[in-house]
Automatic annotation (TrEMBL):
GO terms for molecular function: phosphorelay response regulator activity; transcription cis-regulatory region binding. This is Response regulator transcription factor. It comes from Sedimentibacter hydroxybenzoicus DSM 7310. Pfam families: Response_reg, Trans_reg_C. Keywords: DNA-binding, Phosphoprotein, Transcription, Transcription regulation. The lineage of its organism: Bacteria, Bacillati, Bacillota, Tissierellia, Sedimentibacter.
Length: 223
């Protein structure tokens, strides 16, 4: 069952969407506290977010940006603000689709199904990476070892994912920096060292000493 989170301040629309999508077998929740959208996101762990642009306190672009810091789940903007600038901004902020109010609820449902198929059909059963008892959860960006689970920061998670996707291979510092910051320019090389050191300390605290190995003059590896 896929989870859907609705971020819509018009409760009539939110309730109508929820009732309709429940009939299609989705698990649906909507946000009530518009100061803490990411809190509800983390609680519900949705597979897709339906996000209005005009919201109390912070607009949908803000919350799209906040969600993108922690997740790659599909985000569909739903808005009456249908001018090209809003649509372009929605896509540039990390949105995956945009549907204009008023909309046909059946068209919306079809779009949701298409987004979910694109996002999850090839990775429906790939939720984690495991190596020597270390489990990296790709859904909630946690790491588990010997029944101890730790939360990873965005950079922790990206480093671990890259290294565990390349078990037994050396990953260069430049490649890691590119993966973290999408650029190897204007980034102080020491910044990566600080990130690696912080992550190693976190791993050491749960018994994973030397899990990330340094290959001098080359980079880092797991395995």
């Amino acid at each position: 069952m896929y989870n859907i989170l609705i971020v819509e301040d018009d409760l009539t629309i939110a309730n109508t969407l929820k009732a309709h999508l429940l009939k299609w077998g989705y698990d649906v929740e909507y946000v009530k506290d518009f100061k803490n959208v990411t809190e509800k996101f983390n609680e519900h762990k949705p597979h897709i977010v339906l996000l209005d642009v005009m919201l109390p306190f912070f607009n949908g672009f803000h919350w799209c940006n906040e969600i993108r810091k922690i997740s790659k789940v599909p985000i569909m903007f739903i808005s009456s603000a249908s001018d090209n600038m809003n649509i372009v901004m929605a896509m540039n902020m990390g949105g995956d689709d945009f549907i204009v109010k008023p909309f046909d609820i059946n068209v919306l449902t079809a779009k949701i199904g298409a987004l979910l198929r694109r996002a999850y059909s090839l990775q429906e059963y790939i939720h984690e990476i495991e190596y020597n008892g270390v489990l990296l959860n790709l859904n909630d960006t946690t790491l588990t070892y010997n029944d101890t689970k730790i939360e990873l920061t965005k950079n922790d998670y990206r480093i671990m994912q890259l290294l565990m996707d390349n078990i037994g291979k050396v990953v260069s510092r430049e490649e890691i920096m590119q993966h973290l910051w999408e650029s190897d320019q204007f980034i102080d090389d020491n910044t990566l060292t600080v990130n690696i050191t912080r992550l190693r300390k976190k791993l050491s605290e749960i018994g994973l000493d030397n899990f990330i190995k340094t290959k001098k003059g080359m980079g880092y590896m797991v395995g």
